[in-house]
Amino acid sequence: MSYETIISGTGDDKKILLRNKVSETEAEIFSFGALLNSFSIQHNGKLQNVVDGFSNVDEARKEITPGFKSAKLSPFVCRLKNGEYQFNERLFITDKFFMKEHALHGLLYDADFILTEYGADDNKAFAKFVYTYKNLNEGFPFPYKTEITYQLEEQNRLSVTTQISNEGKTAMPLADGWHPYFTLGKTIDDCSLQFESETMLEFDAGLIPTKEKIDDTRFLHPSSLEGIGLDNCFELKKYLNRPRCFLKNENLTLAIEPDASYPYLQIYTPPHRRSIAIENVSSAPDAFNNKMGLIILQPGEQRVFKTAYQIFGNKS
């Protein structure tokens, strides 16, 4: 077989390596958080990883906040204003993780997912993870199941599929996303960024959308990130079935290809500038309140979200 799936670690600390034995492209996923810890290709005689991850599972458990590297964002994404929202004429207040006055990045970022399926053949290597949320937070009393499948494919492509199922007896609000940090070298100042958007959401001082939109065409063509600071949400062009985002330096190109389930792109440049968070999200920040992209999932209903990452080595 051209591909292999290698499992190491025990219990909730499993590490899963998806590997193409021919090209030596590989992706490492932790069962903790079902997070993508590395994605690497052979280029210029060495293995080059484009994910800013953790040295091991223990470090991930200790340091997943406040950076949320590679975290699954669910059932809300980015910020939730004051950690509260109204749904079906009831007020709910979440209490998990706050930055200043707002709750951040949902409830599953530190969940222990169960590896339920894995395998490999001549065309792919894959691993499937499942976590069932059971009313663990009074601010979100809606049981639901999350199934995440990583699949390493030809041409250095890694697809990531999330399926959410409402397992409760009432409707539930939902947004979904990912929070990976990517690095192509020493600093993002050496990189250009390009994605298909002409619209940025206006934020207030607390990074909460005002529901107004701002024309922004900076990244329709490759634009240098040197000296550019971002903590913004962009609306991807709706007429494109698969809008693409490119992060590129002289050595590597990373392509990010979400499907229509992820119509927003949240971009964050941390102060250290060694990496950049490029976040596929199904809604705007604070969607539980502003309803921008909010999904209402009915009892028994499922929703699928999909994105893919692909690495190219640039010719010298």
Which secondary structure elements does this structure contain, and how are they paired or packed?
Blueprint: E1 3-8, E2 15-20, E3 26-30, E4 36-43, E5 46-49, H1 57-63, E6 71-73, E7 79-80, E8 84-87, E9 90-93, E10 98-99, E11 102-104, E12 114-120, E13 125-133, E14 144-153, E15 157-166, E16 172-174, E17 177-179, E18 181-182, E19 192-195, E20 197-203, E21 209-215, E22 223-224, E23 231-236, E24 245-248, E25 252-256, E26 264-268, E27 276-281, H2 287-290, E28 295-297, E29 302-313
Antiparallel strand pairs: 1-2, 2-3, 3-4, 4-5, 6-17, 7-11, 8-9, 10-11, 12-13, 13-14, 14-15, 15-29, 16-28, 18-27, 19-22, 19-24, 20-21, 20-23, 23-26, 24-25, 25-29, 26-27
Structural class of the helix and strand makeup?
mainly beta
Strand content: over 45%
| Mean pLDDT figure | 96
| DSSP strand count | 29
Strand line-up across the major sheet:
12-13-14-15-29-25-24-19-22
Termini gap: 31 Å
Which descriptor suits the 3D outline? Answer: globular
Question: How much helix is in the residues?
Answer: under 10%
Number of helices: 2
Let me know the largest β-sheet: 9 strands, antiparallel
Radius of gyration: 19 Å
Which regions have little confidence, pLDDT < 50, spanning 5+ residues?
none
Give a verbal description of the structure.
- The structure is a single chain.
- With 316 residues, this protein is mostly beta strands.
- The protein has helices spanning 57-63, 287-290; strands spanning 3-8, 15-20, 26-30, 36-43, 46-49, 71-73, 79-80, 84-87, 90-93, 98-99, 102-104, 114-120, 125-133, 144-153, 157-166, 172-174, 177-179, 181-182, 192-195, 197-203, 209-215, 223-224, 231-236, 245-248, 252-256, 264-268, 276-281, 295-297, 302-313.
- A hairpin with a 2-residue loop joins strand 10 and strand 11 (102-104).
- The strands form seven sheets. A nine-stranded antiparallel beta sheet has the order 12-13-14-15-29-25-24-19-22, with no helix packed on it. It has a six-stranded antiparallel beta sheet with strand order 18-27-26-23-20-21, with no helix packed on it.
